[in-house]
Automatic annotation (TrEMBL):
Lineage: Bacteria, Pseudomonadati, Pseudomonadota, Alphaproteobacteria, Rhodobacterales
Protein name: Precorrin-6A synthase [deacetylating]
Domain Tetrapyrrole methylase stretches: 4-192
Classification via InterPro entries: 4pyrrol_Mease, 4pyrrol_Methylase_sf, 4pyrrole_Mease_sub1, 4pyrrole_Mease_sub2, CobF
Pathway(s) it belongs to: Cofactor biosynthesis; adenosylcobalamin biosynthesis
UniProt GO MF annotations: precorrin-6A synthase (deacetylating) activity
Pfam families referenced in this protein's UniProt entry, alphabetically: TP_methylase
């Protein structure tokens, strides 16, 4: 039996790795680190830095190449499903070649494996081929790092909030009945599609990391600043992870909650 450990590592800061995560990484026989190509080599380097920081024994660390997603396929869900199938096949190959039929293998997952991440879906595919026991170790999310960086609560008093993606924001607009939106996985600055009047935005690039950039203010004024900072940071580092919170500034009466 193979123990597959999906370990949330926060936003890339070694200090975000929990004691539980560090213990299980040291308990693993193998850690697999995906390489997403030269443009995103920093991502693999950050994972290796985390390993260098927390590993105290002889755990093997092996890198492997990830396939690229076929963006030419018009159906978004179809191309993501095909991509996940391809990644799962590579996981199976790497586990067989580097671990064998039993042992403990760990993957370092950005943020938390259960929030807008597909690692668990890929693990489900692998479990249809290899005998697996899957364990999930929660991590600090970029959402937590964003609100901490800006020193704000995520919701208004007694009010709900919605976590969504840039694609959903562009395609469906601002959801009804919600004044606060947290937007993840947005490579196209989809806040541009929202009428800016009365909207405040808090944005973080590389939240929780040494490169962290924070901007906030009325959407109409801040959007151009975010887009310029984002483009400059991406050009400098070759990649960027960012997240933002938007809130409609609607009048509310006092409550007793």
């Amino acid at each position: 039996m193979i123990d597959l450990m999906l370990i949330g590592i926060g936003t890339g800061n070694p200090e975000h790795v929990t004691l539980q995560a560090a213990r299980l990484l040291n308990d693993a026989d193998l850690i697999l680190i995906p390489d997403k190509g030269e443009d995103k080599s920093d991502l693999a380097r950050v994972r290796r830095q985390i390993c260098d920081t927390v590993l105290t024994g002889g755990t093997r660390v092996v890198s492997f190449d990830l396939p690229t997603r076929d963006e030419a396929t018009p159906d978004y869900h179809a191309r993501v499903v095909d991509w996940h199938d391809a990644i799962a096949a590579i996981w199976v190959r790497e586990i067989r070649e580097n671990l064998g039929p039993q042992g403990k293998v760990a993957f370092l997952v950005w943020g938390d494996p259960s929030l807008y991440d597909s690692t668990l879906r890929i693990a489900d595919r692998v479990a249809k081929i290899l005998p697996l026991r899957v364990r999930v170790v929660p991590g600090i999310t970029s959402l937590q790092a964003l609100t901490a960086a800006h020193r704000i609560p995520i919701n208004d008093l007694g009010a709900p909030f919605t976590v969504t993606t840039g694609r959903q924001l562009r395609d469906a607009g601002w959801p009804d009945g919600v004044d606060t939106l947290a937007v993840m996985l947005d490579g196209q600055c989809s806040f541009q599609s929202i009428p800016p009047k009365g909207v405040h935005i808090w944005w973080s690039g590389y939240a929780g990391m040494v490169q962290e950039i924070n901007l906030s203010g009325p959407l109409a004024e801040t959007a151009p600043q975010i887009m310029a900072a984002r483009a400059e940071a991406r050009a400098q580092h070759g990649w960027i992870m960012d997240i933002y919170l938007m809130r409609r500034q609607t009048p509310r009466g006092d409550t007793d909650e």
